[in-house]
Amino acid sequence: MTCSLLSALAARAADCTQPPAPGVDWQRCFLDGRDLAGDDLARAHLIDTSFERALLDRVNLTDANAFRARFTKARMQGARLDGGNFAEADFTEANLAGASLRGADLRRTHFFKAILKNADLSGARTQGADLLNADLSGATWTDGKRVCAPGSVGECY
Question: Which long-range contacts (CB under 8 A, 24 or more apart) does 94-102 make?
């Protein structure tokens, strides 16, 4: 690589030490285990960021770009992900009980064994999403009308 290309890449690198704030750039950061409960991360840049086992209850991720981000085993009860880009993200075993995902891009997202009880998926795009063993009890489905029956696992009954 040339020096100018290396300089350009370095200039675009995210500062993973920035405090939580709307629009923060945490692309490709490792924030595993962090306590960000209740923080406002609206419009944040979180592409390829890792939040494994993080505490994200009530976090505001409205309009965030979290393409391919990892939320494995994160606790996200009551979180707001409305309008965000979470395509190809990984929510394996995450707890999203009561979360709002209205209008979110969830295409090809992994929700294997995730808890989505009472979550709101109204208007979300879920094409290719992996919902295997995901608990959808009481969730409002993507059409905004159907509420999943108690015991809905892997699909909305």
Answer: none
Name the token pair of 148: 């999943």
103: left (phi over 0), alpha (psi -120 to 50) or beta: left
Residue 119: CATH number of its domain:
2.160.20.80
pLDDT of 7 above 60: no
What pTM did the predictor assign? 0.90
Q: What is the DSSP string of 28-68?
A: T-B-TT-B-TT-B-TT-B-TT-B-TT-B-TT-B-TT-B-TT
What mean pLDDT is reported for the chain?
Answer: 93
Q: How many domains does the chain have?
A: 1
